[in-house]
Amino acid sequence: MSAYYDLYRTPDPSGENDGDARLHARILPRGTISAGKFRELVAKATGFSPAILDGTLQAVTDELYSWLSEGWIVEVGELGYFSVSLRCDRPVTDRKEIRSPSVRFQHVNLRLGSKFRSRFHTMELERKASPYLSRSSMDEEARREKLLQHLDKYGCITRTDYESVTGLAKHRAVADLNRYLAEGTVRKYGSGKTVVYLKP
């Protein structure tokens, strides 16, 4: 199975080349696998009972914390190397300006092991339009016209239809449709996933 990705414009901090901004690829997450679901999947793959996996994972977590909190770097199988990073409460230039109570934990870092990382070189990628990224160059008036044309032709429109005809991302499509509702341009019929928008 492929992983989906889309291309996003890389912001220019100077703001001078926004029109010609370079693109970068980013994975589109399919969702989140919960700890419980992940345990079930590993149990099915290995034959170990969920209780044994829970106990093992808790032991690994406890040992990892114990050694990291004493300043060790810990290698965990093929996964890689765990280490701790710190931060100072305020920027200083002189060592005498800061004391131990002002130095705090910041992050647990993971440097992937080369063997684990190399597995991803063969991952299959497939480009897919992000539901969170608007691709529309239409102004509000043009979008309204597209909406009315669709209603004249088909009688009703769904949110996903509106996204398709305008190129808007979901959150912007919802904002548009809510505005049209408030203005009286459309009326809503149905609820949940069965909502359609009609002429008033």
Q: What is the makeup of the main sheet?
A: 3 strands, mixed
Number of DSSP-assigned strands: 9
Computed over alpha carbons, the radius of gyration is 26 Å
Structural category: alpha+beta
Termini, distance in Å? 45 Å
What does the overall shape look like? extended
Q: Regions with pLDDT < 50 over 5+ consecutive residues? A: none
Can you list the strand order of the major beta sheet? 2-1-6
Question: H/E order of the elements?
Answer: EEHHEEEHEHEHHEE
Helix content: 25-40%
What is the number of helical segments per DSSP (H or I, 4+ residues)? Answer: 6
Average pLDDT number: 88
What fraction of residues sit in β-strands? 15-25%
Plain-language structure description:
The protein is built from 6 helices and 9 strands. With 200 residues, the protein is of the alpha+beta class. It has a 3-stranded mixed β-sheet, with no helix packed on it. It has a 3-stranded antiparallel β-sheet with strand order 3-4-5. Strand 8 and strand 9 form a beta hairpin. The longest helix is centred in the N-terminal third of the chain and has 19 residues. It is extended and about 70 Å long. The model has no long low-confidence stretch (mean pLDDT 88).
